[in-house]
């Protein structure tokens, strides 16, 4: 019995530590079978299968009718699309639904039925599955001919519920909405007042020639409201004011005032409010993540202190070093953190660890990830040491940057000289010769750097890997060019041979050379700061990007259902026989507007939907369609763009404030996470808070 209990305590500690590492809740079953199921569920294989299933069910929209995968979107030129037979995509959907049913069943069992009824996300998960399965059955009963599929709009929910950080971000956004609503209400008041001013200012007169502003933009209240709403997005600026401005220049004051108040003041005020409020709520979310980590570590300490090998005479709870080592060997965690904790344990002279010592060991999880570069090789030869000093010096890198700049300038000169020449008149000798020279220099530079730094140290720098990879690709392309077309010579413009023509090969090489010029970024501190900020956003704010995918996907599916059949080749009206009334109205409205039709033909040819998206004109869009596009503008441009700006500012300001606190060491790279962005302002939970939360655990019963 004692041995079985010890094994259970060890397994519980392993799971609690893994929960702490991943910021997971510890409120789940802790018996032996449930712990095995829990670790199996969160294993890489199961999570990979779940992620693959979510990807597959989201990707089905690309092959389902009426979507299409074609090279061109122009309906006049694209080939007939492949429509999968009825039952193919439905079978794939059913397999995905089965995986999701297993997923929700395991989650519900692990947290326990009492906790299940408190979990709104799991309830919504089950409801989404029920509605999707019901819609799937209806689809099969209609032999896949139904026009509306509700389950397609619900698919992004599977992505949303699978990420705890996405749910936290969504909760933060939801909490920020009241503050956003106050500014949006002020924006609506601004829009309404100026709409009434516009209807009074541009009222109809007896002279029809002077009423162009009224006819086109301010005929009635909906038209006036839409015209000014589009002006708020600057999509119809200055078109909306041209008729009035042609009549009297003083009318421009109205449009200037509207734009200044709306765009410069209210929209930027919205950005400031979103930044202030969303930062606070995101900080609270990160604070709760820290509490989860501390709670998981403390739970592991409490169960390990219950081991039979713990001395009975101890005045306070403690954990043996041997038990902790046993847990660390089995726990799934980053090797860097595991090695750092083990080193600290070896340096510790005591055999027993208190709660404070135990918690302090795992503070290694909160530290910046530090990447140490390998040392340079040590040469015995005096000549090689001088070579190493010369080619490992930063000035050698600066010389390479100057050479890359000279290469860019030479390419620009040649492109300007040959801009108006026909392909048959172009002489590629000069461009081919200078490319050959510069590529040989890049190869020599790479080899000398490898000689000075050693291969391992050279490859440990991302800038060197980027530089070396492009150099190798350029060398391969240059060798292939010489093998097919020979060496550069005057009049070097042979006919097309192989997969690419000579001009295509030269263009590809030049594009890579231009791309290679980005190597200068690490040498410019301010530019490097901006780039690292953007890279950190890409790496750390995946939850934000995931919610963005959810919004885009939902609007895309809705748009497909609303506007399918609205884009047809010129002169083809046979589709109107089967088209719904809403689509007929849309097309009739489109073809009634001669002036706008010519503009769209010049810019978008037959792509009506692109014209709709760009112009958002009252004469092109049906009344019901305006709701769709205005909602899209509000969510994507007004709210989402401002949220992204807020997060970008937060990340940039944090890095800017820390730039003087940390020395720029050439051999050390710091990698930060979202949680570490706010590490300096987070509050550590007290022992009383942790113990109170542990005693509320629905499945874990502590001795004290």
Keywords for this entry:
about 700 residues, mainly alpha, Helix Hairpins, Four Helix Bundle (Hemerythrin (Met), subunit A), two-stranded antiparallel ribbon, 30 helices
N-end to C-end Cα span: 21 Å
Strand-residue fraction? Answer: under 5%
CATH architecture of the largest domain: Up-down Bundle
Provide the domain count.
4
- Top CATH class of the largest domain: Mainly Alpha
Number of strand segments: 4
Q: At the third CATH level, what is the topology name of the largest domain? A: Four Helix Bundle (Hemerythrin (Met), subunit A)
Portion in helices:
55-70%
Low-pLDDT segments? 572-621, 662-672
Strand count, sense and barrel status of the largest sheet are: 2 strands, antiparallel
SS-derived structural category: mainly alpha
Strand order within the widest sheet? 1-2
Overall shape: it is: globular
Q: Supply Rg.
A: 32 Å
Number of distinct helices: 30
Question: Whole-number average pLDDT?
Answer: 77
Transmembrane segments: 45-63, 122-143, 180-202, 253-275, 395-417, 429-448, 469-488, 508-531, 543-563, 627-649
Keywords: Calcium, Calcium channel, Calcium transport, Endosome, Glycoprotein, Ion channel, Ion transport, Lysosome, Membrane, Repeat, Transmembrane, Transmembrane helix, Transport, Voltage-gated channel
Catalytic activity: Na(+)(in) = Na(+)(out); Ca(2+)(in) = Ca(2+)(out)
InterPro entries: Ion_trans_dom, TPC2, Volt_channel_dom_sf
Walk me through this protein's architecture.
This protein has 704 residues and is mostly helical. It folds into 4 domains: 43-162; 173-285, Orthogonal Bundle (Helix Hairpins); 382-523, Four Helix Bundle (Hemerythrin (Met), subunit A) (Up-down Bundle), CATH 1.20.120; 540-659, no CATH class. Helices cover 67% and strands 2% of the residues. It has 30 helices and 4 strands. It has helices at 2-21, 32-41, 44-59, 88-111, 113-116, 120-141, 150-154, 156-161, 164-201, 212-216, 221-232, 242-247, 252-304, 321-330, 335-347, 355-361, 382-391, 394-417, 429-453, 455-459, 462-485, 502-516, 525-540, 542-563, 581-592, 594-604, 608-615, 623-658, 674-677, 687-695, and strands at 319-320, 352-353, 369-372, 668-671. A two-stranded antiparallel sheet has the order 1-2. The longest helix is centred in the middle third of the chain and has 53 residues, at 252-304. It is globular, with a radius of gyration of 32 Å.
């Amino acid at each position: 019995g004692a041995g079985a209990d010890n094994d259970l305590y060890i397994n519980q500690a392993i799971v609690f530590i893994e929960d702490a590492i991943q910021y997971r809740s510890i409120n789940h079953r802790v018996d032996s079978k449930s712990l095995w199921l829990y670790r199996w569920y969160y294993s890489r294989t199961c999570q990979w299968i779940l992620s693959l299933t979510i990807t597959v069910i989201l990707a089905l929209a690309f092959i389902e009718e009426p979507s299409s995968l074609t090279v061109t979107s122009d309906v006049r030129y694209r080939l007939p699309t492949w429509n999968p037979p009825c039952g193919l995509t439905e079978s794939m959907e059913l397999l995905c639904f089965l995986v999701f049913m297993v997923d929700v069943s395991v989650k519900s069992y692990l947290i326990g039925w009492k906790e299940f009824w408190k979990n709104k996300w799991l309830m919504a998960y089950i409801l989404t599955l029920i509605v999707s399965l019901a819609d799937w059955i209806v689809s099969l009963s209609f032999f896949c001919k139904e026009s509306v599929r509700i389950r397609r709009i619900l698919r992004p929910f599977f992505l949303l519920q699978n990420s705890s950080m996405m749910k936290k971000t969504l909760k933060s956004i939801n909490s920020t909405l009241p503050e956003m609503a106050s500014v949006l209400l002020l924006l609506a008041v601004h829009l309404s007042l100026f709409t009434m001013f516009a209807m009074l200012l541009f009222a109809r007169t007896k002279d029809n020639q002077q009423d162009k502003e009224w006819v086109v933009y301010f005929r009635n209240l909906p038209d006036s409201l839409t015209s000014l709403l589009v002006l708020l997005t600057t999509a119809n600026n200055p078109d909306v004011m041209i008729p009035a401005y042609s009549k009297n220049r003083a009318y421009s004051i109205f449009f200037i005032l509207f734009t200044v108040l709306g765009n410069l003041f209210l929209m930027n005020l919205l950005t400031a409010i979103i930044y202030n409020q969303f930062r606070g709520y995101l900080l609270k979310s990160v604070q709760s993540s820290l509490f989860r980590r501390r709670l998981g570590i403390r739970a592991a300490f409490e169960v390990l202190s219950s081991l039979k090998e713990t001395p009975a005479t101890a005045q306070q709870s403690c954990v043996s070093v041997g038990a902790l080592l046993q847990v660390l060997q089995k726990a799934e965690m980053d090797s860097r953190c595991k090695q750092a904790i083990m080193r600290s344990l070896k340096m510790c002279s005591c055999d027993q660890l208190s709660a404070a010592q135990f918690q302090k060991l795992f503070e290694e999880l909160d530290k910046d990830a530090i990447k140490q570069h390998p040392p340079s090789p040590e040469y015995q030869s005096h000549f090689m040491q001088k070579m190493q000093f010369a080619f490992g010096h930063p000035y050698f890198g600066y010389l390479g940057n100057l050479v890359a700049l000279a290469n860019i300038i030479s390419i620009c000169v040649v492109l300007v000289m040959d801009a108006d020449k026909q392909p048959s008149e172009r002489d590629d000798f000069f461009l081919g010769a200078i490319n050959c020279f510069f590529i040989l220099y890049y190869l020599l530079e790479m080899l000398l750097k490898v000689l000075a730094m050693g291969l391992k140290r050279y490859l440990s720098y991302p800038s060197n890997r980027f530089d070396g990879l492009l150099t190798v690709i350029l060398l391969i392309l240059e060798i292939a060019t010489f093998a097919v077309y020979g060496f550069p010579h005057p009049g070097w413009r042979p006919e097309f041979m192989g997969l690419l023509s000579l001009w295509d090969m030269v263009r590809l090489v030049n594009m890579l050379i231009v791309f290679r010029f980005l190597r200068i970024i690490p040498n410019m501190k301010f530019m490097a700061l901006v780039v690292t900020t953007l890279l950190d956003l890409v790496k750390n704010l995946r939850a934000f990007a995931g919610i963005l995918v959810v919004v885009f996907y939902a609007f895309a599916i809705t748009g497909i259902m609303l506007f399918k059949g609205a884009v047809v080749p010129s002169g083809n009206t046979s589709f109107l026989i089967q088209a719904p009334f809403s689509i007929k109205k849309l097309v009739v409205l489109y073809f009634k507007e001669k002036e706008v039709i010519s503009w769209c033909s010049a810019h978008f040819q037959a792509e009506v939907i692109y014209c709709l998206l760009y112009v958002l004109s009252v004469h092109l869009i049906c009344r019901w369609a305006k709701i769709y596009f205005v909602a899209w503008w509000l969510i994507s441009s007004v709210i989402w763009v401002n949220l992204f700006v807020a997060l970008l500012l937060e990340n940039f300001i944090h890095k800017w404030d820390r730039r003087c606190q940390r020395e720029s060491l050439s051999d050390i790279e710091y990698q930060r996470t979202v949680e570490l962005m706010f590490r300096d302002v987070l509050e550590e939970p007290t022992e009383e808070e942790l113990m109170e939360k542990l005693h509320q655990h629905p499945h874990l019963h502590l001795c004290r």
